[in-house]
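Researcher: Next sequence.
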Amino acid sequence: MTNDIKVFTGTSNKNLSDEICLSLGLPIGQASISRFNDGEVYVQILENVRGEDVFVIQSTCRPVDRSLMELLVMIDAFKRASARRITAVLPYFGYARQDRKDKPRVPISAKLVADILSTAGATRALTMDLHVPQIQGFFDIPVDHLFAGPVLIQYLQDLGLPDLTIVSPDAGGTERARAFAKKLNTTLAVIDKRRVGPNEAEVVNIIGEVAGKNVVIVDDLVDTAGTLVKSADALVGQGAKNVYACCTHPVLSGLAINRITDSNLTELLVTNTIPLLPEAEECKKIKVLSVAGLLGQAIKSIHEESSVSSLFI
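Model: Next structure:
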């Protein structure tokens, strides 16, 4: 690594940032992030970044608006400090689920966030497992879109589960699940569900053979876990032996932990794009895998202007 690269972090996921910098053999850049009494964020960069290739790591996770505003202020600080290039590294891109107008008079918030990142001064974005890949088109700057699939698939391969079937939790996630099934050389099933309200869905049918199988539900994120638990119940009802699930982003809000603990799930695999709350860390059914190596390799490739395609699933 050359000496004209600097990596900084916000406060939303410092542990992941530490791991990324460890994988790169770089120290975390020095910056002061504080808040006024009314909650306003204040940022000061404590080292020279003029002409540097700057990477700012910040998951826009809970508290979402606070994390996002902190990232924007940091980017603006680097822009005004004359950084040569500013890459926003978003392991988790908040607002990604608001990617279309599915009702009258609603915003497309994912597009809005993409716009304000560019306006703040980001010249490139690096993110992982967007809710839908088309969000890349919302940005007017280059976007490198990574997948946690290699990390999750390696873990599943090491488990060596017999009679394995990969399950997509809905029709929209079929492409993601198919990629897992192809890498694991196994079969695919799809859950047909109907969404009856925000964070609430009803399982209608299971397309594919799951009886007598060990099944793995593959999704991009788990929020309240209501749909995930219902899917697990439906799969067990259809004769599945063991139900595993894996997702990249453990949002895990509301009653998610209680639902997972009391569910038919054998294990839920997640990554560290979002730090777990203490109660989630205590849940024995949740296994956390690190994507720091993937993100570190991507940062190195972007800095060296080399291809990142080898990191894709």
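Model: The radius of gyration is 20 Å. The longest helix spans residues 64-80.
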